[in-house]
Design a protein that fits this description.
Blueprint: H1 30-43, E1 48-52, H2 71-76, E2 84-87, E3 95-98, H3 102-109, E4 113-116, H4 120-127, E5 133-137, H5 140-149, E6 154-156, H6 165-175, H7 179-202, H8 209-222, E7 227-228, E8 233-236, E9 257-262, E10 264-266, E11 269-270, E12 273-278, H9 285-304, H10 311-324, E13 367-370, E14 373-376, E15 381-384, E16 387-391, E17 396-398, H11 407-417
Parallel strand pairs: 1-5, 3-4, 5-6
Antiparallel strand pairs: 1-2, 2-3, 7-10, 8-9, 9-12, 10-11, 13-16, 14-15, 16-17
Helix pairs in contact: 7-8, 7-11, 9-10
């Protein structure tokens, strides 16, 4: 990923005059960015909208988690830290003020009004004083510059609930994926499925976590994906009990488990699938019992997954399985050790932990994960099973079905690789 400028549109055959979707290389049509900006303006129709691109930090690729760093790119089709996107009522086209080459941004995005960043204050002097309201999601220095040239304007950075109105509306918009976004995310999921199969074939005790990571990430690229959606987690033995383990340098111990929480990125869109496999190809008795419990907890949530259901309801269904089987001590939601507690799932999109409305009922077009886990620090191994789902009008599609999750399936793949 280019941390300074993160292009989200396709690199082929895209123009303002038309768009033809390539099934092998799906992308977002320029017309969709126009529609997104129009929807935002319709929701915030009482004033000007000012959006500033935040800095994206190296090593934090894919991290959003309702601190929406990717909102700018969602509207503009690219991301360059410090750039401004301005939407003015009555103006059909957006205004962009960039720290980069304006002509290059125009060519890459189809945006017409792209100006140097230093021209923003002159623009603001001409346009902002006539406005009654300015909705701003921008740094304090940018907000002060607006107030300096338009002291009488009502500058709204937060609403009565303390929330930013732009971020709030974009969270709603980003929660439901468009057909083009769905195609891109399915492509990322397919690459991740293939990577998990490759890891099952490659896995041997005595190899390093890094070798397994390489087999996974090489497969992402072989499948036509861009690379990782987030730093890969490959935790063997006791490292599998560490939620965001990232060293990936230890040796895989014999007769243990390895947790592989990984996701390919395709044109800026993430996938997120976790599989736990035995380092020597066969689950031990206690490992099998815990794995089957985690899998049944996931399936209990799956059985009720449909539009109108909330994450809280999914959570209750999964937790009930651990309680019924008496395995709450080390489970993801009940552990005495807070370091292994986590939620049942999250939204996925431009970020692996994507912006969304976590307490609202799910809608068709939402993409989520369900990921119960069991982390036995006494035994020195962890289990997490994470699948990715598209919520549909009828229920759901499980995009991660190409990555084996049943014990018998995993052991079969690993056994055949050892012949």
């Amino acid at each position: 990923m280019n941390i300074q400028r993160r292009l989200l549109i396709g690199a082929f055959g895209v123009s303002l005059l038309g768009f033809v979707q390539d099934a092998a290389r799906p992308t977002i049509p320029l017309s969709e960015y126009v529609q997104r900006r129009a929807r935002l303006m319709e929701a915030l129709s009482d004033g000007i909208v000012v959006m500033e691109a935040e800095k994206l930090f190296a090593g934090m690729e894919g991290i959003d988690a309702n601190t929406p760093r990717y909102d700018y790119g969602y509207l503009a089709g690219y991301h360059a830290a410090g750039d401004l996107l301005v939407l003015v009522p009555g103006e059909k086209e957006a205004f962009v003020f960039t720290v980069e080459d304006p002509e290059k941004i125009r060519e890459e995005t189809g945006l017409e009004h792209v100006l140097p960043r230093e021209e923003f204050e002159t623009f603001a002097k001409d346009v902002f004083p006539a406005a009654r309201v300015v909705h701003a999601r921008a740094r304090a220095t940018t907000r002060k510059a607006i107030e300096a040239v338009a002291p009488d304007v009502e500058l709204r950075a937060t609403d009565e609930r303390g929330r930013n109105p732009i971020a709030d509306q974009l969270a709603r918009m980003r929660t439901v994926k468009s057909p083009a976004e769905i195609l891109m995310m399915k492509k990322a999921a397919e690459g991740t499925n293939a990577a998990h199969r490759a890891a099952m074939v490659a896995c041997r005790s005595g190899m390093s976590e890094g070798e397994l990571q390489k087999a996974i990430e090489d497969t992402f690229r072989q499948q036509g994906c861009d690379g990782v959606a987030f730093p890969s987690i490959v935790g063997a033995g006791k490292n599998g009990t560490i939620l965001h383990y990232s060293k990936n340098s230890a040796v895989l111990p014999a007769d243990s488990l390895v947790v592989m929480d990984v996701g390919a990125s395709y044109r800026g869109y993430a996938s997120d699938i976790t599989r736990t496999i035995p380092t020597d190809g066969v689950f031990g008795k206690e490992q099998r019992e815990a794995y089957e419990c985690a899998l049944e907890a996931q399936k209990a949530a799956e059985r009720i997954l449909k539009p109108g259901v909330s994450f809280r309801e999914l959570e209750a269904a999964a937790q009930g399985v651990f309680k019924a089987r008496g395995l709450t001590k080390w489970s993801y939601a009940h552990s005495r050790d807070w370091s292994v507690r986590h939620g049942l799932g999250h939204f996925v999109g431009l970020a692996v932990h994507d912006s969304g409305l976590p307490f609202a009922p799910l809608e068709p077009g939402c993409v989520i994960t369900i990921e119960p886990g069991y982390y036995d620090k006494d035994a020195g191994w962890g289990i997490r099973i994470e699948d990715i789902y598209l919520v549909t009008a009828e229920g759901f599609e499980r995009w991660s079905s190409g990555a084996p999750r049943e014990i018998e399936e995993i052991e079969k793949v690993m056994k055949e690789a050892r012949k």
